[in-house]
Structure formats: structure tokens, C-alpha cells
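Researcher: Structure for this, please.
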Amino acid sequence: MFGSLLYSDPLSYAPGTRASAVGGAFTAISNNSSASYYNPAGLAAQGFQAMYITIEGGGATKYDYKKQEFVDDGGGAFDLTVISNRFGLEFSWYSTGFDQDIMSLSCAYGIMEGMSIGLTAGMATTYATEESIEWFYGLGYKANILNLKQFPVKLDFGISYRSEQSFEELKNNSQSTYSGYGMPSRAALGVALLLPTKYAAVTISADYVYYGYTSATDYQDVVVKMKDINEMKIGLSTAFNKVFMGIGYNTSSSEDNNFNLDVMSIGSGIQWEGKSKGWISSIDVTYEKRSGNYIDNDIDQSSIMFSINLGHMNSQPWQD
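Model: Predicted structure, C-alpha cell format:
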């Protein structure tokens, strides 16, 4: 039996309520506080200034290896984001719902109009049996590769990478609910087709994500290696007035068939302005339905995520 799949388990809490609404197909969009996870280059949204905080929460089901059953758990996130034209900076904290926390600092720079790069540095901490800390880094690139103003149609491209780590110093006893620890590398490639109209903006997005696992040592000093996971994601979203709506589909598979899951999602959000000019707030809610095979177990479960945003900005990034 393998251990917790830090920051990538198909059942763990993944940050980004709106990103989850479109099935996680967010690499080429990446225009809000979840950029540090999906693509840090998205922080450099040029043309506006903003500072806002985001608080998220949601359900996360995990498999208890000791009890040999699924148990309900939860995860959450806190983000502080500052954007100034070509520059973006974000502090993020995530709890995955697998006895693990992730803290990171991300920055981004807009090289030119429609093109930006980003960098993330962070640490992952696990508390399953004893505290252990490992460091990781991430890179991101985002660009507008097609802009047909006469139609109008825009095509954005995004790519991101996060390094791998393993908690090899953890030597757990046989009573532990976990037996191996690893943080896989994550490579993502995404495209997003934006169709702005007079009344609403429609976005169709698609991602391919590859998780590559490093080796980890279990409680019997046996080196184990998780099979790599492939994910395909597709999403459809629209924004009109102050309302966001999205639907998505995400399918994951591994060579050992331990993570063959299908996830359907739907989400919505609303934004409103404060009495003082420039102050805005928003609330987003996403529902996810998971089915398939997980560690030789059939699964049919659902969860709800929510996020609250409060900030000050001179434009509305989800409508850009």
C-alpha cells in the first residue's frame, strides 16, 4: 500500500474554486489567486493594479490504509495577492486534507503585452507521524498566441512545471496509516480559447497534466515508486455582468490502474462592488462528482468547494 500523494492525489483538496469548476483546465487561464498552483505566470496580468485576499475551503476524501476504508476530510487555502501592471506577487498556504501543508511564494513578470513568466518557491510539510519539511520550486509561462480582433477570438497558451521531492527520511512503523511519502513532479500544458461577445465572455480550456513520482522508502526500508499519473482536463466557462459560471471534466489514469478516476464539476460565482470605489468582493462555489477506481476500490463520491475574495483593484480580471 502506498502513501499519501502530496499535492496531487486525485482525492485531495486542490486549491482554486473557479479552477475546479472548469475541471482544473486552468494552466492557460491562471488569472486569479490559484495561479501559484496552476501557473505562476498568470499573476502578471498586465494593465491593472490589485491587492486582494482569498480564503477557500472544501471537502477532501482520503483513504485510511490502516482502517482500509475511505474517510471524510477537508482542505483549505489562504492567499494574499498583489498585482501591479507587469508584476505579480503572491503568498499561498494550502492544506491538502492529507495531513500535509504547503506554503509558497510566487512572483511573475510580464515580458511584453500578452506574455509573462512566473516562479514559485515553497515548502511542503507532513505531520502524518512526525514533522518533515521538503522544498520545491515551480516555473510557468503564459502567452497569447492568437488575437483576431475582427472576430474577435483569442487563443492563450500556458505551460508550468513543479519539481519533485520525497520524504525519504521518514521511517514509519507498521501501525502508521501511511507507508511511503512522495511529492511528484507536475508538468502541465494548456490552451484556452476566449470568445468575447457583447453580453458575455466565453472560454473553452483544455489541459494535459503529467505527474512523475520519485522513489520513497517505506517503514520496512523498501524502496517503493508510485506509478506516474496522466490527467486530461477540459472546461467551459462564461462571465456576464458580475456572474461567473463554469463546467468541467477531468479524467486521470495510471499504469497500475490505482488512479483511474473521472471527475465532473460545475461552479458559479458572483462579484459585487463596495461603497468605496475600487473595493470588490466575490463568492464562488463548486460541486465535484468523482467516480472510478482508487487503490483497487470503486469510488462514487462528491464534494463542495467555496471561496471568498476581498480586495481593491482598478479593473475586473475575470472579465479581461
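Researcher: Any notable elements?
Model: Residues 1-7, 168-180, 316-320 have pLDDT under 50 and may be disordered. The first helix runs from residue 17 to 21.
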